[in-house]
Amino acid sequence: MKAPLVSKPGAASVSSMIRCANLCKKYGDVAALDGVNLHVRKGQTTVIMGGSGSGKTTLLRLIAGLEKPTSGEIEFAGEDFVHIPRKRLYELREMMGMVFQYSALLNSLNVYDNVAFPLHEHTDLDEDVIRTIVTMKLEQVGLRGMERLMPSELSGGMAKRVALARAIAMDPAIVFYDEPTSGLDPISAGVITTLIHDLSTKSHRTSVVVTHDVQAGLSIADHVVLLWQGRVIAEGGPEDIRHSEDERVRQFIEGRPDGPIPFSRSTTSYLDDLLSHPGTVRMRP
Ligand SMILES: Nc1ncnc2c1ncn2[C@@H]1O[C@H](COP(=O)(O)OP(=O)(O)OP(=O)(O)O)[C@@H](O)[C@H]1O
Ligand SMILES: [Mg+2]
C-alpha cells in the first residue's frame, strides 16, 4: 500500500515547505486540477507556469489555504493542510504573504494604510513601530515617500510594488505571487521581477510565483513546474525546462500558437454545438 504523504505534525524534512499529492479540484464538470504533485522547498523560488486556464491560480489558492481541494493531499510546514482546524489554518496563514493577480489594494486606503493593514489586523504593535516597519518595507520596494498617495494615483507598476510591500509586511516565511508582472510594460515588469528575486534571495524566503511570463519566470526560478490542463507536464530547474525536448514544453516556451497544446479546450464538435442551438443557425435546405 502507498505510504500516506501527510506525516505527523513536524515530521516533514526540514527542506520541505509544501508537498501536494494527487491534488484535484473540480468546479462543476471542469477539472481545474487533475492529479497534481508538487514540492515547494524551503528558501527556494518555485515558479508555476502554464497557459491561461491551465490551473495556476487554482493551485496557488489551494496551497495558500484559500480553498480546499476536491481530493488529494497538501502538507504545509509538516502539517496536514486539508483537514486542519480553522483556527490552526489562520495561524499558519500568518506565515504567508500574498500578491494577488490584480494587486488587490484597498482603494479607500492610502499607500501607508495598505501596507500597514496586515499589521493593524494581526498584531498589537504600537503605531510608532508599525510606522517604522512600513517605512522599511516601502524602502525595500523603492516607494518610501509615497505613503500619502491613494491607489488611484499609482501606476500599475507602483501598485504592484505596494502589493509586494504589503505582502512582506509581516515578514512571512513564504510569499505567493499570482501573475506579478501581468499588465505591466517591460521595464516595470523587469523591476518587479528583480524585486521578487531580491526579496526572496536576500531574506532566504520561500516564494511561489505563478506566471505566464516565460523569460521572467525562468530567470528567477530555482524550480519550475509547467501546468497544462490541470496537470504537471514538466518540472525541473530552469535549464531543464529551457532544453526540454517535450513538444508541449517547446511550444509554450517559444510561444508558438500551433503545436500539441490546442487553441481551444472544447471537447465537443463545433458543428454539434452550433446545431444544438437551432434558433441561431439556419441550415439551407
Ligand atoms: N471559481 C471558479 N468557478 C468555476 N470555474 C473556475 C473557478 N476558478 C477557476 N475555474 C476554472 O478552472 C480552470 C483553471 O482556472 P485558473 O484560474 O486556475 O487558470 P489560470 O492558469 O490561473 O489562468 P490565467 O492564466 O488566465 O489566470 C479554468 O477552466 C477556469 O475556468
Ligand atoms: Mg490565473
Notes on the protein architecture:
The chain has 285 residues and is an alpha/beta fold. It has helices spanning 56-63, 86-93, 111-122, 127-140, 156-167, 186-202, 214-220, 238-242, 247-254, 270-275, and strands at residues 16-27, 30-41, 45-50, 71-76, 79-80, 96-99, 174-178, 206-211, 223-228, 231-236. It has a single domain, classed as Rossmann fold (3-Layer(aba) Sandwich). The chain is built from 10 helices and 10 strands. Strands 6-7-8-3-9-10 form a 6-stranded mixed β-sheet, sandwiched between helices. A 4-stranded antiparallel β-sheet has the order 2-1-4-5, covered by helices on one side. The longest helix has 17 residues, at 186-202. The termini are far apart. 35% of the residues are buried. The model is unreliable at 6-14 (pLDDT under 50). Magnesium ion (MG) binds at residues 56-57, 101.
